[in-house]
Amino acid sequence: MRSLSRAEVREVDRRAIEDFGLPGIVLMENAGRNAAALLHALAPSATIAIACGKGNNAGDGFVMARHLENLGHAVGLLLAGDPAEHRGDAATQWRVVERAGIPFERLADGSPADWETSLARVDWIVDALLGTGATGAPRGAIATAIEAINAASRRRDVHVLAVDLPSGMDCDTGLPPGACVRADVTATFVARKIGFEHPAAAALTGDVHVLDIGVPRTLLADIGLA
């Protein structure tokens, strides 16, 4: 199976939604549920923190939180942005986890020490900060969160799962223009990303697992993935 560029990832989503009538929130639900199942298989009794940004990558993280809780994990959300700024499918998923009572902390203005304190009591960290559409060096709370995640994973026996790609990595080049999460596992959707082929990328992605999100096989065949 070939790898996808940033533009191709967007086109797969667009065609699944517009040409096949598959709602975006279904794709998000499938992505988060399957990523949660992967993490549960890797660590059935882990305590988990999910670091979330502002976009659809955060929406995947919200879905993961719900399914991981259903699977029996102690799970909490660490928010690098204001929940009121979520839009579309991510906003819907946020309302679900908020009403479900899943614990969360607002760390948009948190210091590195605040982030490290919140990450100190977990076995696994889920990186749901930035997705494939992100370009340029991470800034503000996102950069703080990335540095704290990396510090936590260096200091003790805590593991990191990145959602779709490690936050800070450029989808097309595989290179980080600034701070970048160093993951043990990357749960990527539909296909590997073209940047993963760069020789330096493996040190950031860790083991890559390609997960299905329900994109119709006809569409995958059209773009050479089936």
Structure description:
By secondary structure, the protein is an alpha/beta fold. 42% of the residues lie in helices and 15% in strands. It has one domain: YjeF N-terminal domain (Rossmann fold, 3-Layer(aba) Sandwich), CATH 3.40.50. The chain has a seven-stranded parallel β-sheet with strand order 3-2-1-4-5-6-7, sandwiched between helices. Helix 3 (56-70) runs parallel beside helix 4 (88-100). The mean pLDDT is 96.
Give the SSE order as H and E letters.
HHEHEHEHEHEEHEH
What count of domains describes the coordinates?
1
Q: Give the biggest sheet.
A: 7 strands, parallel
Number of separate helices: 8
- Whole-Å distance between the termini? 8 Å
Q: Using the 3D structure, state the CATH architecture.
A: 3-Layer(aba) Sandwich
Strand content: 5-15%
- Helical proportion, percent range: 40-55%
Low-confidence stretches: none
Structural class label: alpha/beta
Number of strands: 7
In the CATH scheme, what's the topology name?
A: Rossmann fold
CATH H level: which superfamily?
YjeF N-terminal domain
Q: Rough shape? A: globular
What is the spatial order of strands in the main beta sheet? 3-2-1-4-5-6-7
Give the C-alpha Rg: 16 Å
What's the rounded overall pLDDT mean?
96
* CATH hierarchy class name: Alpha Beta
